[in-house]
Amino acid sequence: MNTDKKIFIASDHAGFELKNNLKDYLESLTFNIEDLGNSEFDPNDDYPDFVTLAAKKVAENPDSFGIVIGGSGQGEAMVANKIKNVRAAVVYDEYSARMSKTDNDANVASLGARTINLEKAKELIKIWLETPFSNEEHHKRRVEKINNL
Fold this sequence. Notes:
alpha/beta; Ribose 5-phosphate Isomerase B, Chain: A; five-stranded parallel beta sheet; 6 helices
């Protein structure tokens, strides 16, 4: 696995515990992780505040990845996708982990802490990080269209 790439990680209260455990796992694999919050559990926090920070960092650092975590991962992906050149995908099983990278060159994975446990999250993120973009012409064309919206 290429551990040279930086990973920006963020969550709200619903994803706080999963974020911290997943961050420890990724650091054990020698990934360079930057935690963009929340830094302490706050049941009243709002995921857009932290997800936006991570998505902007990914957009500013094209060779990086982002992982955002909330209750379902749905709202987090919606927020991340508001940032130009961010392609966030909700990752919930092995197929979504692979295809979001192979076909869509997703640079942000969005996880739902209320839908998957830590072991599943580790498995899916490992698949997601290891899966390369296909670089097939029709996929490159589609990613370019996404980036130009």
